[in-house]
Amino acid sequence: MTASDADRTVEKLCLALSADLIASGFLRGAYPSALDTLLALAIGQANLASMNRNLALQKAYAGLNSSPPDDLRRPVRVRSVAISLGVPQETARRRVARMVKAGFMVQTKAGVFMPQSVTETPVYVATAEATWRAIGDLYGALRREGALGAPAHKVSDDEIPHRYMMRLWGDHFLRLIEALLPMVQEPFDIVLLFAVLRACQATKPVASKPISALSLSRSLGLPGETVRRNLLRLVENGLCSKTPRGYLITYALLDTPIWRQFAERHRLILMRFFSIMGERGLLGWWEADYLAAKASSRALPAP
């Protein structure tokens, strides 16, 4: 396998992970729509941004049983969040007001914040556990491909740092939006693109099936016209195809120049995520799982 082939393999592995985690996260339905989920993610990350500079606090609130209390959550202005995401300010204001009324957010004079109670719900816990497993599976695949080396830190006896990882993953996703935005024009287009990628299973060399705008509209909780308009923009940008039965991304399309550029940027950002996890000493648990799986495969009898 050439270096280029190896890079393409890693790129498809990374795309498959994001297609699964990003699409499923925005389709899960904890919030009324994918746009609400995007706003909630950005607000939640901004509330705890000060913790990024305090490793002691990061470690103190690393596990599922240690959600940061409300007094550590710094309120953020909705206007600032809207500007950072490229979302119309009135749209953001209206949607956040609904989330405040539903109890997902708390409004203060200084801005809004996501309360501790929301991050202790069964949905959040299940999402964190599923995300940990999915990224751990990718870690193992990247180790087998030689794309990652063994981490410097071993697994500790502490609680698995699900929450610490989720905060880093949230930062990764917002960084991903920033890096890919010039190619898709709107933040929501990235979510939509990964939803189509997941539905078509385009990262696998199998026959892809198109997905309709109506199906995506229902699952994402957004108006059909909004979804169709954004899908057509993805088609115009060469990232998606329109067929009589719906919208389609194929395995072959991933080898076009526009997708090669998209996939390369995405790979670099995701590898940076693993690098930060390594710097924070958080890869030991996944490394232990990888080594255990490797030992188990060696112990299996030959066919």
Automatic annotation (TrEMBL):
Matching entries from InterPro entries are given as: WH_DNA-bd_sf
Q: What is this protein called?
A: HTH iclR-type domain-containing protein
What species is this protein from?
Caulobacter segnis
